Amino acid sequence: KDGWAARKKVILKGIIYDDMDTLINKAQDKNELSLATFKPTEIIDFVWEEVERDWDPKKLESVIMDLKQGMLFETDVFKKDFKVVHKLPYRFSYIFKDIKGKKSKLMIEDWEVGQLYWNCVRRYESEQEALNKVKQKYLDEFVSKKDLYFFVGTTLRYHSWSKNPFIIIGTFHPPKVIQKSFDFGPTS
Q1: H-type alpha helices, the chain
Q2: Could you say which of 48, 95, 116, 120 would form a disulfide bridge with 90 (CB–CB 3.0 to 4.6 Å)?
Q3: Which phi and psi angles does 23 have, rounded to 5°?
Q4: Beta-carbon neighbour count of residue 30 at 10 Å?
Q5: pTM for this entry
């Protein structure tokens, strides 16, 4: 309703960053920021890179061993319902510019992009077509019809030392609000 006004009021009430250097400095130098909302100035591209198609066998074995060992407050329902999901064979990223014109590439580590990919794989004939459909949604639709924001976060592993410790953990994409023009009557 009303261009997602109620959602915007809640989600956009804090600081919205538009400068990657400020964001990175707050994470690295002052260690005071690990989650933020970021508004890119210009989206350049949405890209994907192929990654390993299978889970690392050692990591998978470790997870399964942990499940067998159990934890103090864990329920049996969790163990019974636990299933290894298919590994996403691609890493998706946005390439964009910030308010200062700095170009960045951030990986999207969001459940939604992965689920869209799997839905498109089931729906279309080829992986390439599925990838193109994901790009169509995240680049064409989100950029042309939506007011795109990134929810960004750091990972513990890279937080204080990486050149850029942030990844995109979600997007907020309300519809663009078109400013209405007013008719002031005849002019001379």
Answers
A1: 5-11, 20-28, 57-69, 76-81, 111-123, 127-135, 142-145
A2: 48
A3: -60, -50
A4: 8
A5: 0.82
